[in-house]
Design goal:
It is a single chain. By secondary structure, the chain is of the alpha/beta class. It folds into 2 domains: 223 residues, Rossmann fold (3-Layer(aba) Sandwich); 155 residues, Rossmann fold (3-Layer(aba) Sandwich), CATH 3.40.50.2000. Helices cover 47% and strands 16% of the residues. It contains 17 helices and 13 strands. The strands form 2 sheets. Strands 3-2-1-4-5-6-7 form a 7-stranded parallel beta sheet, with helices on both faces. A 6-stranded parallel beta sheet has the order 10-9-8-11-12-13, with helices on both faces. Helix 10 packs across helix 15. The longest helix has 24 residues. The protein is globular and about 65 Å long.
């Protein structure tokens, strides 16, 4: 197939879902043309790897001035601010021209932010990768986000986003999400007749890039990774350091914490006032940190979708402790491929088990990696996407009208 792949950011190892999809599709022999925005927060993003993976790539810079203007204009309308963020008339016109060229078999657009680039596309079936149910995320953030402004924005966006997600499965030929939890959330909004048009496609993890290193060697090290500008990650990182680690430190005062991820807020940076805590900011390559980690702990308080940071740690052979909330979107089994808890005390207790029991740590690391390699395999997921593209194209083919017999 020839695939027009549209993204609101440059696919990369940080924007890994779209990057790995492009690589998997190309690996299966498809010809992929990527059209992407470069938003201001991704000015650093290197587009060389994805350019090497696809047949052609067009990138449109999205300035901070434009994103602010987009958000300001959108406040007066009914649509999600997330969608308005990526409004770019030149990029949208370019996508529409390509779609009208009849050179492509399918269009694939990622995320609510990318959906605005598909307005004006006609005659080409579109698969919308919603990734997560954002309205489900906002329902939780409105109550649980760390900062008051985050809670206010979540309440502001909730009705707008729910309206968009209610229509999405009917607007696009197919909609895909990362987990059954998110699929159920979309179907609750869109109605049961949308069920056949919403599919689960997990994210791909590159098991040849993330490989086991010297996990657990040396000082007891607890690792948390994720984009720190994401409010759910900010809440989880603070919960780890302020609630979970005091329970750990009662038994292991020597344990250290590394919080790694781009754009840490002042609240996250302040965690490093404790000399036992390191906040790294952006890290180009997480693999050395995985090699240092005794255990990766992700005490998610709320969220949506598949927790990619958990999968990367598992692929690297690092034992993982997470919250029951995060386990809901995974098929990994607690006590087999990972450990889980609910309260700070339970999560701390599980982390201490890993620190004390090297045999348990090794068993979890091996089983976790086997799970990721099996369930988040590029070939398997690439074929699943191809099947969904085929079904979307089949639905778009006009059916011959049967004349009633006389």
């Amino acid at each position: 197939m020839r695939i027009l792949f549209v993204a609101p950011y440059v696919p990369s190892r940080v924007r890994a879902r779209s990057y790995e999809f492009v690589r998997a599709l190309t690996g299966l022999g498809h010809r992929v043309h990527v059209v992407a925005l470069r938003p201001p927060e991704d000015r650093w993003a290197d587009d060389t790897p994805v350019r090497e993976a696809c047949e052609r790539m067009d990138v449109f810079p999205l300035s901070r001035v434009r994103t602010l203007a987009n958000a300001g204009l959108a406040l007066a309308g009914p649509g999600p601010l997330q969608e308005a963020y990526s409004r770019h008339p030149a990029a949208r016109a370019h996508v529409a021209r390509l779609a009208a060229s009849r050179l492509y078999d399918i269009a694939h657009v990622e995320h609510l932010r990318g959906a605005t680039l598909m307005r004006g596309v006609a005659g080409l079936p579109v698969v919308f990768d919603a990734v997560d149910s954002i309205s489900y995320l906002f329902e939780q953030a409105a109550r649980l986000a760390v900062r008051r402004l985050q809670r206010v924005l979540a309440r502001l966006e909730l009705a707008r986003t729910a309206r968009f997600e209610r229509q999405a499965p009917h607007r696009f030929a197919r909609t895909v999400v990362t987990s059954p939890v998110d699929r159920d959330a979309l179907i609750r909004l869109a109605g049961p007749d949308a069920a056949r048009r919403v599919a689960v496609v997990p994210s791909i993890v590159d098991g040849s890039y993330f490989t086991p290193g010297r996990s657990g060697a040396g000082q007891a090290t607890v690792l948390f990774t994720g984009k720190m500008s994401y409010h759910a990650n900010e809440a989880a990182a603070r919960h780890l350091v302020l609630r979970v680690m005091p329970e750990v430190w009662r038994s292991r005062p020597d344990a250290r914490v590394i919080v790694a991820g781009k754009d840490p807020s002042p609240r996250i940076l302040a965690l490093a006032d404790d000399p036992r805590v390191q906040v790294t900011g952006y890290v180009a390559d997480l693999r050395p940190l995985f090699a240092r980690a005794t255990v990766a702990v992700s005490p998610l308080l709320y969220g949506a979708g598949l927790q990619f940071k958990i999968l990367e740690a598992m692929a690297s052979g690092v034992p993982v402790v997470t919250s029951l909330k995060a386990c809901a979107s995974l098929t990994a089994r607690p006590e087999h491929e990972l450990l889980a808890g609910e309260t700070p005390e339970e999560i701390a207790s599980q982390a201490l088990r890993v620190m004390r029991d090297r045999e348990l740590a090794g068993r979890l690391g091996e089983a976790g990696r086997e799970y990721v390699v099996r369930e988040h395999n590029a070939t398997v997921i690439g074929r699943r996407l191809t099947e969904i593209y085929g079904a979307a194209r089949e639905d778009s083919v006009p059916r011959p009208v049967r004349r009633a017999s006389r």
